[in-house]
Structure formats: structure tokens, C-alpha cells
Amino acid sequence: MSNLDAAFSALADPTRRAILARLALGEATVMELVEPFEMTQPAISRHLKVLEGAGLILRRVEGTKRPCRLAPTAVAEIDEWLGMLRKTLTANYNRLDDVLAAMKTEE
Amino acid sequence: MSNLDAAFSALADPTRRAILARLALGEATVMELVEPFEMTQPAISRHLKVLEGAGLILRRVEGTKRPCRLAPTAVAEIDEWLGMLRKTLTANYNRLDDVLAAMKTEE
DNA sequence: CAGTTATATAACTAACTTATTATATAACCG
DNA sequence: CGGTTATATAATAAGTTAGTTATATAACTG
Lengths: 107, 107
Prior knowledge:
The structure is a homodimer. Chain A is mainly alpha-helical. Helix content of chain A is 65%, strand content 6%. Chain A has two domains: 1-72, Orthogonal Bundle (Arc Repressor Mutant, subunit A), CATH 1.10.10; 74-107. The first copy, chain A, has a two-stranded antiparallel sheet. In chain A, strand 1 (57-59) and strand 2 form a beta hairpin. The first copy, chain A, binds a DNA duplex through helix 4.
């Protein structure tokens, strides 16, 4: 599975996006991440594994705890790929602008 | 399923990303999209349905053909969500810069 | 109109995902 | 040391996905 596969597929799950949103506020342990969800600890542990595998989060070992935080390079690769689409879409918008401009001129 | 669920989950498949990349070059019919892949036409038709459902592509009817193109608003919503992470990650980078700066001062 | 082309849909299968419960491991606390 | 806390792993059930083949539909073409 490519990194992009893993990253996009990790982001496809709302629980995982919520975890990332929580981590955007700062580091959190597994139990801290379990708390806000109506879901068991093993389920969250698995989501964390998926996020880690996708390179979206990092974990430290701190005694019996495993605090998680966002991976600094997380968004870069995704952005790079989206940039390819963005470029075209912007071009399309511009073309649309041209059309609209032409219509205005014709008025 | 939220739009973001659908969008990210559509992007998680490499065939679908390849289709989007192809459409970034311009409109294409279903058979034109089938051609470069080692996959049957029904399989591609399904991928197109997923992409359409996620709001990533649009289709016209043109006689017996159904040309596809990128949806202009495709990337916007995704970007909006990623922006949330980007913000934090930038902040983290800045904090790292601070640390590095501090280390340098101590030398 | 008959045949062909473009596309969609259905039925099915294999593989993967997500959640659960039960259990293991390992560090911490008194 | 013994109990508790934090986390991971395994087994399993349910649901979803992605592909296949076979077939339907509908528009073009001679």
C-alpha cells in the first residue's frame, strides 16, 4: 500500500479524523483519546495503529503510557498530490472567468 | 457518510487517483478511462460512480457517451479540513525552530 | 431495421475493515 | 511482592469494497 493510499484511507474514517483534531490541540495518551468516544480502548488502539502506519501520528514511550502527537510531515505528501488537482481546477476556474468576461463584453 | 468520508475514501484507491490524474489532463469518456487500466469496464464504471458520489467528478450525457471531468469544488472541502492540521503542524515547526535557535544560543 | 458501440446494473466472490470481548504484558504504587 | 493502571494483541462476527462475468439499455451506423 502506497503512503498516499494509507494516508487517504486513514483520513476516510471520522473517528480517526476526530483523533487527529484532538491531537491538533496537543499530545494525548491512549486513554485520553479513548475518553471522548463511545468506543472501547482496543478499538482506539487500532485506529492509532492505522494513523501511525499512515505516518500521520508519532508515539513516544513514557513509562506505561504512549503519548501520541501529530507527525510534522503528515500533511505535506497529501498536499503535494492534491496540488496536482488544484492546479487544473484553478486553470478551469480561470477558463470560466474568461467565459464570464466574454459574456459580459457581449452584453 | 459525510462528504469528507466519501472524498477521502474515494481518494484512498490508487485506480481512482489515477483516474483523477487523467481527468486533470481534460475530459474523458468511460472507454477512454478504461483503456489505460488492466481492468474491466464495469469496474471502472463503479470507480466513476464512487468519484461522482464523493463530488470529485461530474458527468455529461453526450449521445451514448458520458464524458467525465473534475468537479471544480473538488479539492476545496478537503483543503479546508487539512487546513486545521496544517495550522497546528506549522505551529509545531515554529516551536521546533525556537528549540533549535535556543540550542544554537547555548553553543 | 440489424448490428455494433458505450455504458450501466446485477449477482457473486474474495479480501479487507471495524468493532467487540477476552486476555496478555509491563510499568507503577503502596 | 500484589494489585492496579495503561496499552497491545488475538479471536471473531458483521459489514463493506473491489473485482469478475453476464446481461440490459439505449444510441449510433450502414
